[in-house]
């Protein structure tokens, strides 16, 4: 059960990209947009608000994949696991969204969650719990097949628990 009080830090993309996701970590394929941007689906944020902003990766971009890195988080402990909750949209059959973890001492990036497009175009919600004994970064990666019309991957309202 989520306590939406002050212990959760929310990234809703309404004004910019929040402090957990520095602008420098936003690869060119991601675009902060809303329905009025005229870029194909989704046509609203996860609340159905057409003027609200979200991040999206669209097949109209030259880049077919892009990553979004968080700041470096401190190690977690039993009392403070890092939970990251987010809304995601993956258009049918041609998009993939992955969440990965990169620990400070390793070059390798470990995939911890992945979703590929299903038949229905809708916003979904997911929560990931991270347990790490060392500093780490979380990476959201979107991919779309650029040949497809209206193919998109979008992400909205990324919320970080106080353990992050």
UniProtKB/TrEMBL annotation:
Gene Ontology cellular component terms for the protein in this record: membrane
Domain MAM per the UniProt entry, residue ranges: 9-164
Short name of one Pfam family: MAM
Gene3D superfamilies from the UniProt entry: 2.60.120.200
CDD domains in alphabetical order: MAM (cd06263)
Recorded superkingdom: Eukaryota
SMART domains noted in UniProt: MAM
Protein name in the entry: MALR1 protein
Origin organism lineage: Eukaryota, Metazoa, Chordata, Craniata, Vertebrata
């Amino acid at each position: 059960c989520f306590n939406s009080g002050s212990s959760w830090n929310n990234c809703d993309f309404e004004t910019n990209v929040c402090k957990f996701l520095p602008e420098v970590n936003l690869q060119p394929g991601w675009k902060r947009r809303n329905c009025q941007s005229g870029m194909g689906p989704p046509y609203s944020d996860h609340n159905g608000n057409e003027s609200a902003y979200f991040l999206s990766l669209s097949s109209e971009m030259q880049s077919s994949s892009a990553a979004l890195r968080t700041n470096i988080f401190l190690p977690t402990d039993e009392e403070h696991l890092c939970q990251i909750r987010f809304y995601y949209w993956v258009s049918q059959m041609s998009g993939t969204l992955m969440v990965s973890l990169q620990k400070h001492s390793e070059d390798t990036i470990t995939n911890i969650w992945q979703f590929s497009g299903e038949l229905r175009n809708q916003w979904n919600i997911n929560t990931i719990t991270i347990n790490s004994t060392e500093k780490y970064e979380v990476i959201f990666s979107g991919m779309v097949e650029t040949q497809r019309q209206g193919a998109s991957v979008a992400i909205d309202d990324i919320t970080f628990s106080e353990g992050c």
